[in-house]
């Protein structure tokens, strides 16, 4: 996959080409877009690290003062593609399980079939929940579009009454009414935009490490600071002698935002008072709405000799809106594990000869126990 650099006006100027990269470059407006090849550096982490959520704010951030309809359109299209991919992945898993149940009914124990049936019902519940979530997002977007059209109409009326001669009392009243409607529709758009933002789920970002061509040396220490709206993540790492990397933090959960971009700053720590900023980039995040985990690479400096590798997993539901443990099959990594688990052949049902043998052994044991052997 490929993500674009944040433009200064926050308007997409180039079509995104799909690849296995996270095309974050310096935020200069005249810098070209860049596609990178995927890589997975060797990283060792400290034990005991866990997922952190460094938010001091509530789940719902305050609504914006100025709506961003063009940006919301882009995020909505990317979100719909991600939800569609999520549905397709789980539908394939459901079909695979259903096929295995049909093929295993004649030669399987009841316990194995019961376990498969329970997993099928769990996926069906999650699919229904995912479809309801998609329909809710569609309703919010339709309501947003209605308010946008009303706001545009009120804006045209204000413009028409302002350019004319507001000498009459009726004209002044009409201008005041149109201005009041414009303000009301603007507030409604901001509220709907904030509500839609709260339905975007979570981004689980896992640190995989830095990679550099003759840039990383044993003993180097780096600090990475990520900023996403009000959300912050700061971590420090060290390059070991065996080319491994040790980081004090492993994973972070970010709530997706509509108008904000992910800012990444990498600093090399040389001494107590001598820190060198290697790169400061700002990246697009709407392409992270995907069903499967993505390994993305960020260009930290201009030449691309230092890259940051991240693994991003999108969860369409946040932690305050999670399904029960029995139906939590919404992670793509879990889906991949289950694909391999379901491919295992079911245990065979004992034949009549084997059943007769087991009965005779049981009867012999009873006779020996009562002293009649």
From TrEMBL:
<protein>
    <submittedName>
        <fullName>RIPR1 regulator</fullName>
    </submittedName>
</protein>
<dbReference type="GO" id="GO:0005737">
    <property type="term" value="C:cytoplasm"/>
</dbReference>
<dbReference type="InterPro" id="IPR036274">
    <property type="entry name" value="HR1_rpt_sf"/>
</dbReference>
<dbReference type="InterPro" id="IPR031780">
    <property type="entry name" value="FAM65_N"/>
</dbReference>
<dbReference type="Pfam" id="PF15903">
    <property type="entry name" value="PL48"/>
</dbReference>
<feature type="domain" description="FAM65 N-terminal">
    <location>
        <begin position="16"/>
        <end position="362"/>
    </location>
</feature>
<comment type="similarity">
    <text>Belongs to the RIPOR family.</text>
</comment>
<dbReference type="InterPro" id="IPR026136">
    <property type="entry name" value="RIPOR3"/>
</dbReference>
